[in-house]
Amino acid sequence: MIALCLSLSAIFDTVGIIILKKITSQMTQLQQLAVWFNIFVYVFLIISGFLGIYACIVKKRSAASLFTSLVIAQFPFSVASGALCLYLLFNNTSSQPWDTDKCMAIAFDRFTRDLCQKTDLLKGLSIATLVVTWLVEIMTILMANVFLSQLREEAARLDMLDPKYDRDGYDC
After folding, report:
1. What is the C-alpha to C-alpha distance for residues 170 and 172, in angstroms, rounded to an integer?
2. pTM for this prediction
3. What single-letter DSSP state applies at residue 24?
4. DSSP state, 27?
5. What are phi and psi of 107, to 5 degrees?
6. Which among 28, 96, 123, 134 is placed 20 to 30 Å from 3, CA to CA?
7. 86-112 tens-digit pLDDT
8. What is the C-alpha separation between 78 and 150, in angstroms, rounded?
């Protein structure tokens, strides 16, 4: 699940950078800021994902707990930035109306043409990808909680087999 989160985050970051490189001249500053915020949110998820992989490899409760907390904290920002990006990229703003012809003049590939024309296919794919990503993040949170519970149970079992006595020497 962590690997899937990392993959989807990398896709979102790549698409965001492509959008910014190809049609920055057609975007308002608010639209650019929304895309940058979305990129930042998913870079944060990638960094958190590497912590999650580390937690799985070394089986440290503190790392697993930190990973779970980071993903939980990141999730509302993911939803907010995704919704804001969809709204700003696919709706016309009053301050700078979308000039499809001007945008098409700089479009050299199918993706950019679809983005310039704000096609229903691209809108649908964007929404579907965001929803799938959010579901994967929720599943990652749930699985991380299960893993954390498993680590706690293992630690409790080990403590019962080999109890740790008071380090001060007052064992009575």
Report:
1. 6
2. 0.78
3. G
4. S
5. -85, 125
6. 123
7. 888 777 666 556 677 777 777 777 877
8. 28
